[in-house]
Amino acid sequence: MSTPLPILSSKLAQACSLRRPVIRAGLTNTKRACSRRPFLTSLWATTSRARASPEPASSSSPAPPASSSRPPQTQSQTSRQTPPSPPPTSRSNENVVTPTPDHQHDSPAKHIAVSIDGDPRTFDTVFLRDSCSCTQCMDPHSKQKLFQTADIPEDIEAECKAVVHQGKHMVEIQWKNDVKGYASDHRTRHSIDWLRRASNTELLLRGGVRHDERVLWNRDIITRNNKWIDYADWMGQDQVLFDALSHLNKYGILFLKNVPDSEESVVDIAGRIGILEETFYGRTWDVRSKKKAENIAYTPQFLGLHMDLLYTSNPPHLQLLHSLRARTSGGESFFSDSFHAARLLQQKSAFHFRTLCTFPVTYHYHHPTHHYHYTRPTIELYPYPKYSEPTNLAIHHVNWSPPFQGPFEARIGGEHQTTLRNYLSAAHAFEKLISAEENLFEYRLNEGECVIFDNRRVLHARKAFDATQGERWLKGTYVADDVFYSKLRVLEERYTGQWLADGVVRPATE
C-alpha cells in the first residue's frame, strides 16, 4: 500500500517545530499550546466564581446542545488513517469546568476563561454569544440562526457559572448589553464537550498542518488497490457506499460493474451521491462519434490526457461514464494521477513546480451559442499564510486540458519572454511524468461498467477507434464538489463518529 499524501516535507515540519508547536489532534499538544500563551495566565484570576460548584439547571432554561455519540467501529473503519482523538472527558468537577471572567470579583467581562481538563481555554464573549443555540437564537427545525452576528453589540460582556444538566457539565452565561430585543433573562449554555471541540478545532486550523487521506498512485499502485463495486450494492447499501466514496476520495477513481443497460443508470448512480450538476452539455450527455462534432470527445480521434470544463469558474468535481456500447476495436481509456506527477515534479525540480503554480494558462470554449473563458495556473495549492513558498504547500487542484487551451494572455513577450519559456520547459517536464508508461492506468470499459473519477485530479484520455466497425457509446454526467463532500461527511459521521473539513478532523455532533 502507498502511504497517504504527505502534506509537509520533513524539512518544513522541522521548521514548524522551531517556530511554534505543531498542532495535531491529540489534546496533549493543545494543552501545551494553551499553556504557552501568556495572556491566558493573566486572565486566569482566582475568584469565587472560579471555585463555584456545578449546580442543577432550572427547568425553564433553554435546552443545551446535544453531545456527540460515536458508534462502534468496524474493522474496515478502524483502518482509516485519522489522527488520534482527544482523551475522554474528565468528570472531575474542578477539572472539567471552572469558568472565570477576565476581571476579578465576578464583574462582567469581554473574555471568559474556562478550565477544560485542567487547562484554561479563553473564549471571546462575541463567539460565545454568536454560537448560542437556544430556541430564541436558532430555529430548532432548520438549525439556522435567528439573528445576525452584526446584531451583537461591540460592548457586549458576560459572566458565567458552572451548571450540570442531564449529567453534562456546562457553562451558563448571563449577558450584559445583549442583542437588541432579547430579554434580560436570556441565558446561553454551552457544554464543555462543545467548547473543547471548538477550541481544539481553532488550534488545529491555526497550526496549519493538514490531515489528508489522499493516496498518490502510479500504474502498479492503482492496479493493486483498485476497487470494483457491484451496482446493486452501491444502490442498496449505505455502508458499501461509504466505503466506495472513501476510496474515491483517497484514490480519485472507482469502478462499478453489472450496471443495467439503461440511459438512466448513470443518473441513478450519481443520485446516490446527490444532485447532478447540469452544464451546457445537459444534465447527462452522450460520448459517441458524430459528424461536425462540437467537442473532440465526440469524434473517433485520439484524445490526450485532460480534464473537463476548465474554462468554467468551478469545474465539476466528479465525472461518471457508463459504457452502454463497446462494440468496436480501440477506444481504450487511460487514467493518470496528476497529483502524483506534481509531487514527482516538485521532487525533481522545485523551479518547474513553482512555475506551474504561478504561470497563468487560459482555457476557453468559444462557439456561436456558448462562450466560456477562464485563466488558472496548472497547479493550485491550499493557502497557507505562514509560509510564502508554494513548494511547502499541499496540492488542492491540478488544471491540465490541452485541447481546450486558449492563447496565452499574459507574459507573452518582451520582458516576460523568459517567463513563458520557463513555463514551456515546466510543461514539458510535467507532460512526461503524467504520460509515462509506469504512471498510466489503461482500461477498456466493457458494456455494463461505469467509471467515476475526480475530474480535478485524475486525468483521462482515450485511444482512437474505428467508428465504422461498431458502436462505442458512453453516457456521462457530473457531480459538484459540494455535493460529493456533503454526502461523504454525512456517512463519515454515521460510521466513524467524525468528519473532515479544511484539513481538520472534527467529532460528529447530533
From TrEMBL:
InterPro entries (UniProt xref): AlphaKG_dependent_hydroxylases, GBBH-like_N, GBBH-like_N_sf, TauD-like_sf, TauD/TfdA-like
Protein name (database record): Clavaminate synthase-like protein
Protein family (similarity comment): Belongs to the gamma-BBH/TMLD family.
Amino acid composition bias (Low complexity), ranges on this chain: 47-82
Residue span of region Disordered: 47-109
Entry annotated with the keyword Cell division: no
Domain annotation Gamma-butyrobetaine hydroxylase-like N-terminal: ranges: 117-178
GO molecular function: 2-oxoglutarate-dependent dioxygenase activity; metal ion binding
GO terms under biological process: carnitine biosynthetic process
Cofactor: Fe(2+)
Keywords associated with the record: Dioxygenase, Iron, Metal-binding, Oxidoreductase
Chain ranges of the TauD/TfdA-like domain: 229-478
Domain of life: Eukaryota
GO cellular component, one term: mitochondrion
